[in-house]
Amino acid sequence: MEQTFGKLIRQARKDKGYSQRQLAALLKVDFTYLSKLENDRADYAPKEDVIRGLARNLGIDEEELIFLAGRIPQHYENFLKQNNKEITALFRRLQENPSFAKKIFDAAQETE
């Protein structure tokens, strides 16, 4: 089953023993908004500061959660803008060539 942003934060919240109301209070958001996020029913991805707060409180890697939410961390924006043509070509090639994508992802894992 595909891991979604909502499923991940719901499971992590339960694993940490928080209720939706408790976690929402820590994040300073309404619990109904948190419920929408957990059910993948929010109209838009949450702001980066909310995602980072979720990650910190739930023990999830912040950048991975930002990407899973469909956002790009702000500190990458200038790099992406400066290299927009190359990034576009890279994403296209990754999508069109799964073996190339695997090589890139494997190499990225080796550096961590």
From TrEMBL:
It comes from the Bacteria. This is Helix-turn-helix family protein. One of its GO terms (molecular function) is DNA binding. Residues 9-65 form the HTH cro/C1-type domain. PROSITE patterns: HTH_CROC1.
